[in-house]
Amino acid sequence: MLVTHLSLTDYRNYARAEVALRPGANLFVGSNGQGKTNLVEALGYLSTLGSHRVSNDQALIRSSEQAAIIRARLQHDGREVLVEVQINRSEPNRGQVNRSAVKLREVPRYFSSVLFAPEDLALVRGDPSGRRRFLDQLLFARTPRLAGVATDYERVLRQRNTLLKSARSSGLKGAQLSTLDIWDDRLVVLGSELIAERDALVARLRPFVERAYLAVAGADHSPRLSSRLSILSPINGDDELAEVDEGASPSRWGSPFQRHEIETEFRVALARVRRQELERGVTLSGPHRDDILFQLNGLPAKGYASHGESWSFALALKLASADLLRTDSSSGDPVVILDDVFAELDQARRARLAAAVADYEQVLITAAVFGDVPADLTAHTVRIASGTIVDEPSDD
């Protein structure tokens, strides 16, 4: 898959931008704050319907404007498709494919990308929510139908939490108890599907992470990842999975959990924490509280890995995602996006990363300093200054 042209209107600091892109490596160079990351952020939005930098879409719209437009011309197997998203301040966002309106959630079906940025260090060192988001983005890219399952689960979760809050303030009555049982059934059915799919994805991803870590780190530190499921774990006072030692960890290094196992354990977990849930007015078990355990050399990467090891693990997760998508997808390679990554790496890791992405159909790179990027990735360079394309790649 290739992006042949990117067009932005009133997006971030761009009143308008038109950028032609080439197969292979495309490098965007500019001082910090000039707008180079905004270009790749826009493309990342098309494949995930979200930004890797902010959670609020309003920040993506140029100041004083009411809407921003991202439009990209894509090419795969000689066929072209025009994909567009309009991000609005005061009404729902809209999507188009080949100038025809589509449901917004359909847009990512047409474009696949994997973006790595310095913020992704939080995959290793940050909160579980970031790891869940990483896993879900990859899950939905491989199986778009599951985005609808996740949306339905979130709706049921909100309804159940509302009922729990009501019960906490007024006491649980007979009718409310019956209603809670109904929401429990829906929560288990939808949540078990998500848990099973995530767990299967973790198992599928393992060998790809092992290869990618060796490729970028140049050493085998036995990287491992496994599911940590809230339905099998005690809950601490902060409503997160309690810290446990490896021997007691609700993790699994072998085959994925089966769907019927998950449904059984989910129902047991809801019964076990029912009193706590009524006291707190919140659902304490389910995929919205799960985590992934990352390990290096038999120790949790979070808290034990060095800065360089953490960077290598985070990079390996994203490279493994790209490799998995290219292996399983019928739409060819995902577009690999490296946002301001090379400045954070030493010379050896830069070279190894360049080699790891060299054979992808298209790689987009941003950098503040041209010299930070290995020469093999600089053939097509676009220079950015103050929201303006000042130097596009030549035809040579």
Automatic annotation (TrEMBL):
Domain of life: Bacteria
Domain RecF/RecN/SMC N-terminal stretches: 3-367
GO-annotated molecular function: ATP binding; single-stranded DNA binding
Residues noted as binding ATP in the record, renumbered to the chain: G30, S31, N32, G33, Q34, G35, K36, T37
Swiss-Prot/TrEMBL keywords: ATP-binding, Cytoplasm, DNA damage, DNA repair, DNA replication, DNA-binding, Nucleotide-binding, SOS response
Single Gene Ontology BP annotation: DNA synthesis involved in DNA repair
Name of this protein: DNA replication and repair protein RecF
Biological classification of the source: Bacteria, Bacillati, Actinomycetota, Actinomycetes, Micrococcales
UniProt gene name: recF
